[in-house]
Amino acid sequence: MIDALTNGLAQVSSPAYLLMLDDKDITENIAPRLISLTIEDNRGFTADTLTLVLSDADGDIQLPQRKTKIRVFIGEKGYALAGLGEFVIDQVKHDGAPDKVTVIGRSADFNGKLNKEHEQSWHDTTLGAIVEEIAKRCGLEASVAESLEGIKIAHIDQSMESDASFLHRLAVRNGAELTVKWNKLMLIKPGRGLNAKGEAFPQVVIQRSDGDKHSFNIADRSSYTGVTARWLDTKKPKNQTQKVQLQRKTTTQTPASTGHPQAVTPAAEQSEKPVYVAGSADNVYGISTVYASKEEAIRAADGLWSYIQRNTATFSLTLARGRTDITPETPVRVSGFKTVIDDTPWTIKKVTHSLDNNGFVSKLDLEVKIKEGQYDVQNE
């Protein structure tokens, strides 16, 4: 299906969908009333969202109960439909005139177990073990990226904090993102084009002729050119707070990579305080948290620096023909735009599928793709 775009838009296709309400097919009942169906497929710890807008001109619609589950499948007539998720209804609206009903569902029930507060201390464990235990008590299946699973956690407290908030905090400090899809609690390294197992998604090539409209934006790179993080050196007699430094490699860049962080030359160790800077020291953002170890400081600074770099430039594109095979974290190459846009490697951050009387389209929100192993750690 990745090759479908190469066939152009000459082939007119008719969208098709299937809606299951608590395992009951309601498609035929919904079809005459459907005004629009929109699904937001998010990457981070923002629930995927389903929005159904239905005509209630005759006043016969019975409002659905909250907590009811809807499964959605979308595709083209004559082909197998793709499952786009299971959603829990948490909001129902009725507006008029003309009368219409709006049903909103989310992929994870944040009013349920994930939102329950817990008091717990974690000792001598790993990031993967913590996610596994929390997923189990929330009735979810854990899926943790291999590069994150074995990260050692010496001690951390969850003090009257919801599992959702605690896991988000853990993800941020380790340069990761958390999401819930298909009853799976997933922890990934964002912007790498990899799934939770660390496997690479196949790259998608999109021509400008495939798009309906687009928007490109370059952020102000001079805001921050690096990140610093501190750690408490308990081995020192006075428990001194130390810093560690990371700099870009000075290797020559190709035109395609110009303007993006690549790797760095190691610097010689200097005698006094160790400092970690992700990037150069011209305009550095200092993380206020003091971490328990050098390794934790490195992961936190690298995660924040990756976030800054991913959002240096953003690009959005609406495909005139919807594609259910494209998901967040899919790597993308585009062609037919400005050179800087075409030369930039992109990763999908969010996909919005929309289906109405005008057809089926998909909007892609993209960010700069980050490569692994960009930096070498050095001490001052």
TrEMBL record:
Matches recorded under Pfam families: Phage_GPD
Annotated region described as Disordered, given as residue ranges: 234-270
Domain of life of the native organism: Bacteria
Positions with biased composition (Polar residues): 239-260
PANTHER family on file: FELS-2 PROPHAGE PROTEIN
Protein name: Phage late control D family protein
